[in-house]
Amino acid sequence: MSCNSCTKPFSLLRKEKGCPSCGFSYCSKCLDNKMFLPKLNAEAKVCAKCKNNSAKPTEPKTVEAPDAYYRRLGAMGEKQANQEILDRLQKLKENKTTSNPLSKDEEIKNRLQNIKGETPTTSDAEIYARLAKLRGVPVEVVNAKPVLPPPDTRTVQEQADDLIKQYMEQTGIDTKYQNEFDGIINSIESRVQKLKGSEPAPAGVAQSKPEEKSDESEDEETTVKKIIEKIKKEATIEDEIPPCDELPFCEICNEDARMRCLGCRYLFCKRCFLDHKDDDDGCDRYEPYEAPKNKSY
Fold it and tell me: Which domain covers residue 31, as residue numbers?
């Protein structure tokens, strides 16, 4: 599709817009004539032909197509297309059979049957057998219905009691294995002390247990403080990271950029900015841009 005034094709930068008066499609540059429209009860941008027609109030108002529209139809060969349509209609009339036509219901039934084709004659047993062969399991496994778990008929109090009981059993198992592990460690330590030639001191070990617990609590506090300080340092490092460098090239043709659009903040050369310019989207103003001199690209 192309503009009906300048005949330039529509693209991503040259958007298609309709004239609110006549309805034909134009680009934003050709649709720049403002006038009051009674059907909208407001001012709107219309094409040049509608603007000229509004200047002649005495003449009857008729919506005429643009000249580019007629040129396009002439290129397509409107007369030749109409002649081909008439020939095809004449052939259809000549080939029409004189026999009694089928009723609408029978015709629809036959057409649906042709679309569906022949109905499959495979039974359910054959389908289950093929599925079992693909899975590599007996047919009884495929035919068997899934076994659902029985519903829970316990009350809320019974469920809570069962959970507490399960938790107590789990803690008992954990303490049992912990005691066994501590006993194995103590026996290994005693053997090591005997090999070294010194007597084991179980009492001293027992006395040092509370101190070890306090040391462990202090170690946990210090580790938490270290983790918090590390997170703070990472956050400050992320804040100090400079933004990525902007390449001083045009967004469309990759030539050296000379201006920045104030609407979309993209870089363009002069020629591409004129194609990109659009009053409705706010991309009608720019500021000059110069590439940094201390960088090489």
Answer: 17-76
